[in-house]
Amino acid sequence: MNLLLVNASARKERSLSRRLATAFVTQWMASRPGDAIVERDVGIDQPPLLTEAWIAACFTPESQRTPAQREVLAWSDAAIEELARADLLLIATPRYNYGMPAALKAWFDQVIRIDRTFRFDREEKTWPLSPLLSGKKLVLLSASGEFGFAPGGLRERWEHLEPHVRTCAHYLGVEGKDVHHVAIEYQEFGDERHRASLEDALAAAKALAVRLAGQAEGAWH
Ligand SMILES: Cc1cc2nc3c(=O)[nH]c(=O)nc-3n(C[C@H](O)[C@H](O)[C@H](O)COP(=O)(O)O)c2cc1C
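Above: query sequence and flavin mononucleotide SMILES. Below: predicted holo structure tokens.
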């Protein structure tokens, strides 16, 4: 099994989403020590933003790309190769301004690419985009300062992190049933509710690692 860990917190120190990722990965490696984990730290090494040159290069057939266009797509090529190899995608992210951090969105922008991760069929009048990758699972590990973003919660209608990640992940080969989300909430309050949320999430991340590592023994795809 190949795991790709995408860390998106701008904080190296005291990051709760990174702490959740470490808990998941440590538990996973206890079960499956031979597995390979690649880390892409977009929180620290931020992906380049898309430019007109990037878009033009993308829509130029590969055989006709200039050296400069190949260079413009190099970051994207490397990130897509990592992604294509991964069976399990771990995204550890803060909630910033009610959605994903700009650095994580920039990563999605770099890896969701025509004829690499999705195809576009102009004849298809309703859903012209379809993913080229398949069979991956996604574990989303999030940290929020506030609380109540889950279904039925106080801030359900302000939840733009998980739905956006889910929709983007569809184009990376992850079906809805294969998305798992473990969340820490209440960080800004620093009270008993936060401590309980942190403990619950760490336990849930470890339990999820055990469960998915168990499934990895059998047919994953
Ligand atoms: C720039 C910024 C924006 C934030 N926006 C929100 C927000 O909209 N909603 C929320 O619940 N928490 C928000 N927070 C709090 C973070 O989600 C919280 O601190 C979380 O623990 C950060 O993840 P990390 O611990 O992995 O760095 C924000 C924090 C920062 C720094």
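The first helix runs from residue 16 to 31.
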